[in-house]
Amino acid sequence: MILAKSKKMIKMMPFFHNGPLGPWKTSKEYATEDKPTGKPSTSLESEPDSVSFEPAGKETCSKDPMKMKSDRRESAPQLSPAPLREANGSCAGTPEQRESPQKRGVKGKLKEFFNISGGIRKTDPKEKDTKKKEDMKKKEDKPLTAEQIVELIEDDKLFDAAQYLIALERGLHTDCSGKSEEELTRDRDEVEKAYELLKQKVFSIIRDSIIIVKKRPELLQHAVKALIEQENEDEKYKSEKPFDKILSSRPRKWKELWMDTVKKSTDERMKEIKGTTENLSTTALNFLHMGKTMKKDLTIVVQHIKQLYPLQFNVCSAYAECYHDYFTSQVEMIAEFELEDKDVYLILSWVQNLYPNDIIKNPILKNDLEGAKLGSLLPAKQIKQLEAKYLCNEVANVKNWLGKTLELEIRRWTEEKEPEKPEKYFHNELDFHVLQTIHGGQKRAEEITPDLGKQASTILLVELSTFLKSYKKALEEFKEKNRQHRYFKETIIANVNNCASFRTHAEKTVPTPDDTKASILTTLNEIENSAYNVLLQDLFLELKPLFKKFTQNKWTCTESIMEDILKTTSSSVSEFHTLRDPFYKGIMEKIHIHLVREYIVRLMKKRVTLKTPELQQNLAKCITNDASLLQTFCTKNGSEATWLDSVLPKLAEIIRLQDSSAMKIEVAMLAKTYPDISKKHLAAILYIKGNLTNSEIKSIQSYLDQSGAPTTSRTPLFSAIKVS
Fold first, then answer.
1. What are phi and psi of 420, to 5 degrees?
2. CA dihedral over 109, 112, 116, 121, signed as positive or negative
3. With 90 as the cut, is the pLDDT of residue 27 above it?
């Protein structure tokens, strides 16, 4: 088992090359030494001759420290001080510790690293602290000279240099060697010079921590250890300071210097804007550089630098606050100037979105930055002012774009070109461009904050309402001036189809009742109805003489007249299939209402009076048949105006009935379904029944007052019919 472990330890030689005070000799350094010739021994006791586990400083026990230092430097770089000696000049340690390598062998050396059971020995924190104190005690017992310490500093052995300087400093201030005051002053000056050199070296490395930590982490670690050693000595001085001895050099306050160095380092890195090919303004480039630098550097701090420092340094918070302070100063400075529209958006994007979400709340950084004092890059009042300015700019830009978009579309209307017809519906791109502009404004605001996005949505909805009124006016002018346009109807249909997108946007943006939303929907309804009237004008003119035939023929042969009406209507309906579904159904409802209303108008012309029940029943039957034909046609062609289905059958029933009580009930039901029917309308229908007295007519009319609230009527029907 020991043989196996020894082989494993040989493979792990780099691990053993570091001692408590510095590195052991490397395998390369040992490779350059003279090796005994002959076949290597396989004995565990004689094996150390081929591979040594001893540090370079313990190979011999020279009585000349300077010679030892010289020998040591010639052999390999070494952080370890010269070996400490006993008062009698012999090597320090127990006999077992002084035992030669040949006697100790691999097995003996491995005992330092393995416990009895063969596992890796765990280091007790108390033992580690005790070892550190022992190391420091040895350095106090036999310190190096200031000149030797300077050499350590120049060799980047900063932690050892810091320890030796502290030991030398302590010795000078408790000197009992009988040196004169002049000699002591000279020695102290040399120590301070060495301290100054160490300070410059340590803080030069700390200043470049972000760059150094990946390339030479051990160098940064030594610098940090030297810093910590000085802080510990300051604390020790504060707690143990004799009232009769005040050191002008203590406390040295290296932690404060460290904080200043971190600040200067972060400021310099935030200022270093490298060349870029990105097409950005100076302000945008500056913000982008600061954001990238802060995020990248803090990631390095969290992943590589934090673990080199004790917790009380709050390294992540310290760095983050320095970067934050610089970022804040730059944003505040830029915000004081008269800003262009794009700069207002840029500042708000960084202050409200990119900085807090992409940097502060970054998954890698979030936990380590929780304790840092990082507020907003700008005061809340200034942010509100910038948001108000941004919204004002955004509205102005959107309004300008909408105006230009409408101008371009009006020009296209006057061109002798048929509108595009993707799939089977006439179409123009006005709704796309308008809503793209609106959505763009909303999205830009939402990217800053959701709350600002809501504000922008409300304001831009008002702009859409204003735009739609201008759009309606432009369409009215086009209809008045371009009746002879080759593609007049097609252009109208294309614009009606646009209304669907505008309606959807308004309803999604404001799902609850709202004045602006109501205004938009009212304008859209007006645009649609106006378009329907224009599109149906020719058809209704063509139907008018056909409806007159009902009265001209005294309501005889009504079935053939209705067939002619529906045939004429059908020929016009086919061209409306280029309307999108909701508008096709809308125009079919208009047609349905017109056919029913015109039929009722003919009944109320008071051209026919039927005095016998038989004649009245025959007319009622004709009306019922016509109503069935009309209803079937309209439903088949897409009308959803089912509320019209009962009006003609109810009128036919009133004409058919002879019992006044039954007629009163039917009138009451009619009035409840169609509450806009008046006594004049009812009187015109009862005029057909020539066998009713005036008193009976008035009695039946009185039931209109008892009809109650409406139930199913959606659109006024009778109120649009004038009765003489």
1. -65, 155
2. negative
3. no
Count H helices, E strands: the chain?
A: 28, 2
The string of pLDDT tens digits covering residues 629-658 is: 999 999 999 999 999 999 999 999 999 999
Nearest to 677 by CA among 641, 647, 637: 647
Looking up tokens 């020279």 gives 62
The answer to whether residues 601 and 723 touch, using CB atoms and an 8 Å cutoff, is no
- Grade residue 612 by pLDDT with cuts at 50, 70 and 90: very high
Dihedral (Cα; 527, 532, 533, 534), 10-degree rounding: 90
What is the distance between the alpha carbons of residues 625 and 723, in angstroms, rounded to a whole number?
25
pLDDT in tens, 385-417: 999 999 999 999 999 999 999 999 999 998 888
Position 376: which residue type? S
Within 10 angstroms of residue 169's Cβ, the number of other Cβ atoms is: 23
Give the pLDDT of residue 175: 57
Residue 489 carries which DSSP code? H
pLDDT of residue 134: 57
CA distance 263 to 618: 103
Contact in structure between 26 and 76 (CB atoms under 8 Å):
yes
Mean pLDDT of the chain: 80
Q: At 415, give phi and psi (nearest 5°).
A: -75, 145
CA geometry: angle 105, 108, 112, nearest 5 deg: 135
Burial label, 238 (beta-carbon count in 10 A; 0-12, 13-18, 19+): exposed
Tokens of 150: 């300077």
Domains in the chain, start-ordered, CATH in brackets?
Answer: 146-252 (no CATH), 261-378 (no CATH), 383-530 (1.10.357.50), 581-720 (no CATH)
